[in-house]
Structures are given as structure tokens and as C-alpha cells.
Amino acid sequence: MNEDPAPVRPGSGNPGLWRAMLPYGRQVAGLLVLGSVCGVLMNTAVVLPSLLLGQAVNTVVQFRDGQADAASVTAALVLLVAGTLATELPRIGKRWWLGVSSTRLLANVRSDALRGVLAWPADRLHRASVGDLMAKIIGDVEVLGLGVKEVMIETWDTLLFSLSFAVAMILLDPGLALLALVPVPAALALGKAAGTWVSRRTLRAREANSLLTAFAQEGLTGLRVLRVSGRGGAYANRLRALAEHQAHAEIAATRLQSALAPAYTALTSAGVVAVLWVGGQQVTAGTLTIGGLVAFLTMFTRFTGRAFRIPQMANRVQAAAAAHTRLAPLLAPPPPQRNEPKHAAWNPARIAGLTRQTNPRTSRRGPGGAAVSVRNLSFTYPGATAPALKNVDLDIAPGALVAVTGPVGSGKTALAGILLGLHRPDHGRVRVDGADPATWSADDRAGVGYLPQAHQVFSGSIEQNILLTDGSDHADREEPSRLRQALHTAQLDDDLAGMPEGTATGIGEQGVRVSGGQRQRIALARALAAPHTPPRLLVLDDPFSALDLVTEAGLITALRAAVGPGAPAERQATVLLCSTRLAAFPEADLIVVLDAGQVLESGTHSRLLAAGGLYARIFTAQQHVTAARQEKT
To answer: Alpha-carbon distance 44 to 112, whole Å?
Structure first.
């Protein structure tokens, strides 16, 4: 179930929108200053072309009547060109700097939305739809950015631009200007009234887009299953219905704004009738020159060419407020300005908070792995009726290999998630090196390795998957053995030998170009090499499910050599191994058997075999199955 905010109240939210956007404005303050200076220069000179055109017309008339010479006409034309340049050159600078600042602001908002989602607790992530989050982070940010960009650019291109012409027309002829501008307030009133409809329809369109994106994302993820099962047609029918719903919502929003645009234009332009009628009479009466009427008409035409965008801009802002309401629950607080580099606000390519990592080395608290202590731990998944863990007590010595097993649903993955700080327990106390993992910072996690049960991998090369870099990180240059050691421990050396591009081999989305066993071992290598420091805690959830017995045996031996007691002290790690396959369990220092969320038995391999309990029965059964398979081969 998605956590959408309460519906937008049409026409509300703009003050909150601008308060929320204020920190982002500070991030691009330098660019805004440059664009604003150009805007001031442009709007100071914006009436010059109209006035100078009128002056040039009068000069040509005087030349016709013999009252001016050719030099005067040339000078008038040169002034007209100079006045046009004085307007248009600052306009280019204004559009460039304000356009860049709005683009950067958009990127900063999207970055904070992604940071916010990454910081969500696990239970919230489990309830969220990936497609819905994609629609918000991509589509709603675009709608928000369009509204903000309208304000940033149209403040100069429309508001002050129109104001400059309105003032100039009033100064030129107050009576004629009053007649020309009488219909404008009606257009503004219509824009304000239409805000309710615009907000409502925009919100419906964004919600429909979220539903469509979420459904499409899920279908594309499971595309192979749909194709093999022959259910592609049924899925396509459901997708078509959602697409039609989204199209109707988008068309409704577009139809409204398209209908409003000509209404705004008609109202703001209606005064031209009065200008021509009254102005023509004044020219006939000799109280207004032909050049004066041309200048007034030119200014009025330029005014009406932009003034209709004022109510449109208000509607875009109202749509942006609706989009921001959907985005607000995702956004992380903007990075503090004090942490930004000097002159960052003037940098057109800067994304706030995204400083390239220098591969920091967090200090270790001592040799060996992490110490783990669990007391009276109970945990229930959100929405579940029964607890996943009940009254669990567990002590893990630094550097130990602890193997956890039990039937499906016994609580193995829940225990792994709690030790990593992905879940908060309902009751009890969890400490890793004396700290609550639920409170870990990013630096605290720099020494934690994790292989999740689903063995997720990412599109890109094997190296990028293991080191989690974009290819430009210098971590591998600083520590060239890190990648090689992880590959060797994960038993990938022979696999890479058969790949022409080696670690640069692309594995495709979700690892479709490699086998399940290779995908699993790539994820294991990532758990070893991706942390900034050699992991002190290594949590492996079901790491052998896609491996044969020979590879599994080699892997556990290599893992013990890499992070076990025989490894250098700075590379030793505490390992929590959760698995239903027990072939590697004799190597463990401690074995914990869970059943229905409780510790059923614990001890060494030999002790549990001698006890003849659940562990002994499972281990013996798996040994028989393995022996039977070997006989067949």
C-alpha cells in the first residue's frame, strides 16, 4: 500500500510551495543573481524599440515632408537597432542563467527525493510501490520544475516585461492606456478561479500516471514469466485499461489549459479595439502623431503577446503545488549550504550534496570482527499477525562464523535484517560493537557487507556491480587487490577466464546475461568489496541456493581464508550465515536453529549432531540426498 499524502485542496499550497523551494533557491543563488541582473537590464530597455520605432516613423514622415535629411533617418534607424540590441542581448543572458538555474534546481529536488527514499525505514520501503516512486521522482518533479521555471523566467519575461509596457503606455497616453488595459483584470480573475480546476485535474493526471508506471514497471520486471506462462495478452489488456485512464486524465488537464489559453489571450487583447478607435480619432484631430500611435500600438501588441501568460503562469504554479504535495513525503532535507564548496551557487553544473567520495577509511575499533549481542529480541513484520522472532538471545564473538538455519519462515531473514539495522525490533536490545544498528550513519555502515536473499545485481559491468562505482571512482586504483580478492573469494576466477572482457563484461538488467550461480557470487563479491573498509560484519542470507556442492565447498573455504581467524587482523570479519543448506555448517563456530521465530537449539556442529534434534535430522537428510545424487552420477 502506498503512502500518498492527503489530496490537495485546489487553489491551496502555494505559500508552502515557496517556503519549501527557498533552500533550493539558495543553492542556485549566484545563477539567479546573474539572470536577474540581465532581466533588470532587459526590462529597463524593453520599451526602447517601440519608442524608437515611433521616433523613426516620425523622422521618415518629416523626411518625406522635407523637414529632415537622410542623415536623420539613418540616425533614427541606428538608434532603433541599438535599442533592440539593448533589449535582446540581456534577454539572451537572462534566459541562459535562469534556464540553467531552473535545470539545476530540478536536479537538486530529484536528488533529495531519491536520498529521502533511500533513508526510509525498511517497513516503509516494503509498503511502497517502485513504479509509484518512479512516477513521483521523475514525473512529479517535472511538473514541479515547470511551475518553478515559469516563475523564475516569466517573472522577467512576462510580469516585469508587461509591467514595463503598461507603465510606458500610461506615461505616453494615460487615457488610451486605461481603455487598453480595462479587460486585463478580468483575465487575471479567470486565472485565479480556474486554479481550482487546474489543481484537481493535474492531481488526477499525476495519480493516473503513477498507477500506470507502477503496473508497467512490475510487468517489465516479470516479462519473462508473463511470456512463458502465456499471460502476456491478459497483462497487456490491464495495461491498456490503465493507459486509457491515464490518457483521459491527461487529456482532461490539457483540454482545460488549452481552453483557458485563448480565453486569456482574447481578454488581454480586447483593448486593441479601443486603441484603434480612440487613437485613430486622436491622430485625425492632431493630438497624437502617427509615430506616437505606432509606438503605442507596438507596445500594446508586445504587452498582449505576453500578458496572457500571467494567468497561465498562475495555473502552472497551482499544478506545481499539487505535484509538490505528492513529492513532499519523499524529500530529504536539502544539504546544508555550509557543506557546499565555495562559489557552488554560481556553478551551473553543481548538484548539491553530491561530493565525489574519496574512499574514506573509517577507524576500526580493534582487531577482528564485530561483537554482536541480542537480548530478548522480538519482531513482527508490518501487517503480519504472528511475530517473525520471539524472545531471541544471541551472543556472537568478534570474528566468529555463526550459521543460522531453520524451516522456511523461521525468522532467518528477519534476524539478518535486524542485525543490519533494516528493521527495528518490537522489543529487546540489539548491539553491534555496542551500538544500535538502527541508528547507524552512512559512515558506520562503511564496514558492513551484505548479501541479500534475492541476490540483487545491477545493470552494468561485473566490476561496477562489485565495487558499486560509476567507473570513474579511484578506489580500485588505491587498492588494486580489493577487487581481485573479492573475485577469488567468490570463486569467480574460472568464470571470468571464459569472458572476453573480464570484469568489464556487462551482465544486463537484473543479471540476465549471467547464470544464477554467477549472479549470486557477484553479489557475494560485492558484499566483500563494496564497503569502504574491509567489512567487520558480513551478513550472508541464503548464499548457496544457486551453487553446486563443489563450488559451495570451495567458496566457504575461501571465505574462511579471506575473513576468518587466519586472515590478517584488519581483514577479519564476524560472519552471519543464514541458509537452509547445511553443507558448510560444520565449518561454523556456532550454529543457531530457529523455528517459528524462536531459538530451538544452538551449539557446535558435533554437539547438535549428538543431540539428535532438528538440526541433526536436517543435516542427515541432506547428506543422504547428496550421497544418492553422487551415486547416480
So the answer is: 37
